[in-house]
Amino acid sequence: PALRAAASACPIPVEIESSIVDRLPGEVEASLYFCSLEAMQNAAKHSGATRITIRLTSSGGACLEVADDGHGFASTATTGSGLANMSDRIESVGGTLTIESLPGRGTTLVARVPCAPVPGGASAAAVGEP
């Protein structure tokens, strides 16, 4: 629900597709959420995109994909801290972040985090784990 609320406030239309049924550990959910926010903000500020698609799946862990149809960028030309922050956030929970972007072809960010669903459906943060 928090991601859907943030997406509804984005100046670019955002479609969210999720096949995740069970909750993930709280720290993983938080990392994926904040990475999604940063990706939406970057797209809104820099991409010239007309739409953003966010996909969340869980197969052997959690996978977040954020894609926009903007003008893209040469990966060697990035100097901002946003991409580094997203990478640090995902790596802090044992995951990896890849970014594919080419001028004129949009940008796709993929975060993969190895984790298991939380038994009982509550996030780890909701049951008092750190």
Got a strand count? 5
User: Approximately how much beta-strand content do the residues carry?
Assistant: 15-25%
Low-confidence stretches: 123-130
| Structural class based on helices, strands and sheet pairing | alpha+beta
Determine Rg (CA atoms, Å): 15 Å
Number of helices: 3
Largest sheet: 5 strands, mixed
Instruction: Look at the structure and give the mean pLDDT.
Output: 88
Helix content estimate = 25-40%
Rough shape?
A: globular
Provide an overview of this structure.
The chain is 30% helix and 25% strand. It has helices at 2-8, 26-47, 82-91; strands at residues 14-18, 52-58, 62-68, 96-101, 107-113. A 5-stranded mixed β-sheet has the order 1-2-3-5-4, covered by helices on one side. α1 (2-8) runs parallel beside α2 (26-47) and α2 (26-47) runs antiparallel to α3 (82-91). The radius of gyration is 15 Å and the shape is globular. Residues 123-130 have low confidence and may be disordered.
